[in-house]
């Protein structure tokens, strides 16, 4: 069992504090003395500690996912299915799955403290940009669960990026890469459209790596290595990604590798 599973099972007396602590406490049935008035980032609470980051990441991921799903007025079946797929891939225990579902439900509430929760999440992550990008990628995939990104959700995600310290340029680049991944591999939680023409696959593979078709071999390799390093499961877990989410990082690296292989094979011809 991971540290997170043990913590939620009661084996640790660790308190996250702040709005995320309050959200998590309500979901696991414990009283966390962590209302917004306690959100003062007391350095004695050791923000940036790996265990704190894991708890904050798990809490923010599913609660914000629920908030985004509800942004345009209703939660689609596709969005519910994606949330369940993420939980399935993570192999969550019964307790953790129950907590994730409750977090998702809390995120849909009108009084969900999005801004405060995100500010605390950013604070806990400190300067671990790769973790914040991974968080955004998960949220983008959730927002596109029904095959497109609505204007309402797009604006909400831009706001989320602003709070997390990600630029509009970073957001648009990540969004294009996520869209390209859908086109190249198809949505793995829905047997949706999947490109079949080799030339379409090749063009999309370049988009997955975030490079132009006329990029040099050297630049393509650099882009590939940068993305692989950014999504490396062991590195992300060392920085605070919950161990249960390693499967999501592995899926990303597989997609990035497949795109690179597609480009490499085409350039050999």
Secondary-structure element order, N to C:
HHHHHHHHHHHHH
Mean pLDDT: 80
Largest sheet at a glance?
none
Distance between the termini: 48 Å
Helix percent reads: 55-70%
Question: Structural class of the helices, strands and pairings?
Answer: mainly alpha
User: What would the principal axes of the Cα set say about the shape?
Assistant: globular
Number of helices: 13
Number of strands: 0
Describe the protein's architecture and organization.
The chain is mainly α and 269 residues long. Helix content is 67%, strand content 0%. The chain contains 13 helices and no strands. The protein has helices spanning 3-8, 18-28, 50-69, 77-90, 94-107, 114-125, 129-143, 151-164, 168-185, 198-209, 217-231, 233-239, 246-268. Helix 2 packs across helix 3, helix 3 (50-69) packs across helix 5 (94-107) and helix 11 packs antiparallel against helix 13 (246-268). The chain is globular and about 60 Å long. The termini are far apart.
